[in-house]
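Sample 3 of the quickstart, ligand calcium ion:
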Amino acid sequence: AKETGKGTFVIFGEALQQHFDERMIIENQLRNVIANDELSLHYQPLIDLGTGENWGFEALIRWNSPVLGFVSPLSFIKIAEDSRLIVPIGEWVLRESCGFIKGLQEQGYKNYHISVNISVVQLMMDDFTDMVLKILRDTGLSPQYLELEITESIFMESFEEISKKLEFLKHKGIGIALDDFGTGYSSLSYLTQLPITTLKIDKSFIDGIDAADNRSLASSIITMGHDMGLYVTAEGVETAEQLAFLERTKCDKIQGYFISRPIPGHEVVDWVKERVG
Ligand code: C2E
Ligand code: CA
Ligand code: CA
Ligand code: CA
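Result:
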């Protein structure tokens, strides 16, 4: 405990101090990541279970800092959001990944899609929809090949405003996936009001497939999604058993280590060629 000027006491343990120091260092180092070219993207394949074909990829950010080494997005995305640095970083991710998938299309992989994680902080920006449309124009990617992944945290912000933007983009042909589905706090009645095209079931439910008890949870989500006219994607698929179950329950798309880990951009074409054989 530490005495403050006014004679009150605050608990300021060493661990807490360390936590704040670490956040500050990460935030400072994040400021120049774009200018210094420290970011890259890995691409994790998504398989369409209906056709067995590669639907495309989810773009996942990677940060190799000269000061901190490799930093996981799990430890810097929240800090980037709180400091609003996620706005330029998220724009970079979108531009880079749309350009990447357009490049693949031009090499003959015509139907490949790209799915991109979007922070609620980005969605709150007035120019968000303009920014997305401009990147599609600049890269030449058609809107139907882009999917945006949003989370239920949008329910904590101005829902009406964000809904309007998503509705607009959906009308342009862009897919909207609700990521980490099942872990948040959205009521089902809210869900029906959301302009989404896909439910992305969280990995925790896919892990649950291994236990008979929890299996019904995953299949209920798939059935419910389909009843609502949505596609359903499963993330974090790690075993043949999980894949077989998801095939039986008519899940639309899967993603996970069982298919492939996220792949550095320059290795993607090799992976694709190897899979097709
Ligand atoms: P997410 O959107 O839920 O992405 C899935 C995460 O699970 C990724 O972790 C991926 O590498 C990992 N994963 C995929 N398949 C498996 C599997 O079979 N088993 C296991 N154990 N893990 C699997 P990653 O790349 O570390 O990203 C973590 C989170 O960081 C993402 O979770 C997402 O919320 C966020 N993130 C990543 N890139 C971006 C980005 O460009 N923008 C924003 N706003 N967030 C991002
Ligand atoms: Ca995601
Ligand atoms: Ca997520
Ligand atoms: Ca997840």
